[in-house]
Design a protein that fits this description.
Length: 56
């Protein structure tokens, strides 16, 4: 999944994964949208941010 990178933070999304292409200083996310999976997760350890892209 490739998502458009915005030049400003996406309000309402907090991200602390500073190795992600969409990470912005201050724990903000610059992804236009995010996707979290899987559909039947039962707790946070079972979830995965599909939008994550390693910084180049």
């Amino acid at each position: 999944m490739r998502v458009k990178k915005m030049d400003r933070p996406n309000s309402g999304i907090r991200c602390v994964v500073n190795t992600c292409e969409y990470y912005m200083h201050g724990d903000h996310c610059s992804a236009e949208m995010i996707e979290v999976q899987p559909p039947n997760a039962r707790d946070t350890q079972e979830t995965d941010c599909v939008t994550f892209t390693p910084k180049s």
